[in-house]
Design brief:
The complex is a heterodimer of chains A (311) and B (249). Helix content of chain A is 24%, strand content 29%. Chain A is of the alpha/beta class and 311 residues long. The longest helix of chain A has 14 residues. Chain B is α/β, with parallel strands linked by helices and 249 residues long. The longest helix of chain B has 15 residues. The relative contact order of chain B is 0.18. The chains are: A alpha/beta (311), B alpha/beta (249). β10 of chain A pairs antiparallel with β12 of chain B.
Chain lengths: 311, 249
């Protein structure tokens, strides 16, 4: 039994959610990894160093740049006969591609797997994580996306896999990448950050999110937001933590002015330590917080920034 | 251009769901049901495209128990023109739904199918992508903006680091993200009018689709509960506890 993991990468190497997908795959058997796109030498070398990966497939084609679903799924379909399981992280890329691969193989995909029971049986959250469903697949091949927050990523170094170029056949021409507007930030990515500080509706407007900046800078934290703050237009959607946004599980999660709606808790309740700052003592966020501070955030945040600065 | 909009009947997003004590699933008896919120955004987008003259007809489709007709009525009240109900008591999983939708699309020949990006019950986020695969069409998932020019649709997508724009050949599939639009409330006159709009009744067998589930639910457990921790009295105490007790900063 061999599993294939579709990796996402950037200039810094293999992205952390993909390394968590590799960790999930190692529970299933031998693991091969796939890097696709252009100028892959750096990514292929990084993939070959992932512990647990025995072979790296390298698919070099301009049509695979940006990992568009139509083309990448066609490639995975061609590789599928060699594998029992095909996995990717539950990211915008993984969610876009993997169900498409599954349909082409006449398989029901298993989305956002949070636990591997055996080769056919997996645990996944339903209803915004209010239930954990154990599901058994009767399909001969499993197509899986992996909830990165549920698996400790494999290290970036330590392995020594072989690499092999794969032939890329004809890919569909029905879609084309036009442009990307990625937010430029010196801060870590939300899903990979060791510390996350998020603001909610209590922030009152987008400008007030700057109150989080000195704290995030000091702690090396990523900045997130609740859906309420995104819906209110305070910050862009890529900040959103929750059922319909990103799922995070950092060492420390600081929720500021967030009431703690079910859909937000679904995105952060696996964090190791949770801090809540809210002026409403009854806010549900306090029921999951390890440390709760009942305070007006407009006084607490500058104080927190000053306190961190002090030492 | 004809637009199909599949709509799912789910437990209302305001309901605090409970795992059944026997661990067989989620308690749905006597619980308020509504249209999946992302599907409301899909209906809204289709109606706006009709108002702009891009779309000519909107067909709302739902699948599942007989009460899914109510979900279709909601779409009709928002502005869809007619409905198709595929009635089944089976657990219809995304693969089966995508196959049924493909059969309907083969017959209806739409230029665009707009779906919600995920249903808030099973959180699979799969049906739109699977339907695109079965039809061999392009897909614009997690869309926050659509633009049409001739045979091409330009879709702005919400991706992990920001936004991505793709150009897709029509016919195509769109799945909706939160910021595509804000769905309207149906007015009373439109609710009355919707009662007269036709809904076709079908069964999976009419389309020759085997809907047997591929995933068996072995059991459903309550998630691990977090215990409420302690309240701290000041920012200084908080920082001190994070340093010396939790040791995370």
């Amino acid at each position: 039994m061999t599993a294939l993991v579709l990796l996402e990468f950037d200039a810094a190497g293999i992205k952390q959610p993909s390394r968590s997908a590799v960790a999930a795959a190692t529970a299933l058997g031998e693991v091969h990894a796939l890097v696709a796109g252009v100028n892959l030498s750096h990514a292929a070398a990084a993939a070959a160093k992932l512990p647990g990966v025995s072979k790296v497939l390298v698919a070099d084609s301009a049509a695979l740049d940006h990992l568009m679903a139509e083309q990448t799924s066609a490639l995975l379909l061609a590789l599928a006969p060699h594998y029992s399981h095909i996995l990717a992280a539950t990211t915008a890329v993984g969610k876009n591609i993997m169900p498409r691969v599954a349909a082409l193989l006449d398989v029901q995909p298993i989305s956002d797997v949070a636990g591997v029971v055996d080769a056919d049986t997996f645990v996944r959250p339903i209803y915004a994580g209010n239930g954990m469903a154990t599901v058994k697949s009767s399909d001969t091949k499993k197509i899986i996306t992996v909830r990165a927050a549920s698996f400790d990523p494999v290290a970036a170094e330590g392995g020594s896999a072989s690499t092999e170029a794969v032939a890329v056949g004809d890919l569909p021409g029905i879609s084309k990448f036009v442009s990307a507007e990625l937010s430029k930030s010196e801060r870590p990515e939300l899903t990979a950050a060791r510390i996350v500080i998020s603001g909610g509706r209590g922030m009152q407007n987008g400008d007030n999110f700057s109150l989080l900046d000195p704290i995030a800078d000091k702690l090396g934290a990523a900045v997130g937001a609740s859906r309420a703050a995104v819906d209110a237009g305070f910050v862009p959607n890529e900040f959103q933590v929750g059922q319909t946004g990103k799922i995070v599980a950092p060492e420390l999660y600081i929720a500021v002015g967030i009431s703690g709606a079910i859909q937000h808790l679904a995105g952060m309740k696996d964090s190791k330590v949770i801090v809540a700052i809210n002026k409403d003592e009854e806010a549900p966020i306090f029921q999951v917080a390890d440390y709760g501070l009942v305070a007006d955030l407009f006084t607490a945040l500058p104080e927190l920034a000053a306190e961190l600065e002090r030492s | 251009m004809k637009i199909l909009v599949p709509v799912k009947r789910v437990v209302d997003y305001n309901v605090k769901v409970r795992v059944k004590t026997d661990g067989t699933g989620i308690e749905t008896a006597g619980v308020k049901m509504s249209m999946n919120p992302f599907d409301e955004i899909a209906v809204e987008e289709a109606v706006r495209l009709k108002e702009k003259g891009v779309a000519t007809e909107i067909v709302a489709i739902s699948m599942g128990v007989a009460q899914c007709a109510e979900t279709i009525r909601t779409a009709l009240a928002m502005g869809a023109d007619r409905g198709i109900l595929v009635e089944s008591d089976a657990d219809l999983q995304p693969l089966a739904v995508a196959k049924l939708l493909k059969a309907i699309a083969d017959h209806e020949k739409p230029g665009l199918i707009i779906l919600g990006k995920q249903a808030i019950d099973d959180d699979m986020s799969a049906t739109g992508q699977m339907l695109a695969a079965l039809l061999g069409w392009s897909q614009g998932t997690f869309a926050s903006k659509l633009e049409f020019a001739g045979e091409t649709m330009t879709v702005t997508r919400e991706v992990d680091g920001g936004l991505e724009t793709v150009a897709l050949k029509l016919p195509s599939i769109v799945t909706t993200d939160l910021r595509l639009n804000e769905p309207r409330y149906a007015s009373l006159p439109n609710i009355m009018k919707a009662r007269k709009k036709p809904i076709e009744n079908k069964k999976p067998a009419d389309y020759g689709v085997d809907v047997t589930p591929r995933l068996t639910i072995v059991r459903v457990d309550e998630p691990a509960k977090r215990k409420a921790g302690q309240k701290v009295g000041s920012v200084a105490e908080l920082v001190s506890k994070l340093r010396t007790e939790a040791k995370v900063i």
